Amino acid sequence: MKDKIKVVITNNQKEVKIPTGLRMLVRRCCNAVLKLENFEGSAEISVTFVDNKTIRDYNKQYRDKDYVTDVLSFPMGENGVYDLDPANGAKMLGDVVISMEKAVEQAERFGHSLQREVGYLTAHSVLHLLGYDHEDEGLQRVRMREKEERVMEQLGLPSSSSYVMTDSE
Known about the structure:
alpha/beta; Collagenase (Catalytic Domain); 4-stranded mixed beta sheet; 5 helices
C-alpha cells in the first residue's frame, strides 16, 4: 500500500476569496515538503485559512504575542514521534493556520503572487511540523529557507527576488 498524505483544508475567513487551485497548491506543497524530508508513512496535516483578527487571537493565546502574524504551526509530534489517527493509522503532524489577509499583504509587499506567498507559508509551516525551528536565527533558519525555496522551485513558484526579513518585520 502506498503511503497517503491527507491534507484537510478549512476556510474560516471571509476577507479574501480563495483563488481556484489554491487548495491543490497547498496539498502539493505539503507533499513536496514531506518528499524532500524523506518522510515515511502516511500523514495528516490540517491547514486552516483565517483572518487577521483570528490569527492575532491565536498568537496571543498560544505564544503570548499580541500582534498579527502570517502563519502559525501547531506540531503534534515531538522528535519524530507522532500520534496516529485511529481511523487510518496516519501520523498526525499537526495544524497550520494561515492568515489570508496577511498573505495578500505580504504578496503585494514582496511583489509576487498570492499563490507563491501561501505556498511559501505552507512549506515553512510544514517544516515546523516536522521539528524545524528558526528561533535561534542561525543555521537552522538558513537551512529552512533553502528547503522552502527548493519546494517553491519544484512547484514552479521560484522567488522573483531575494528578500530578507528585517528586525522590524
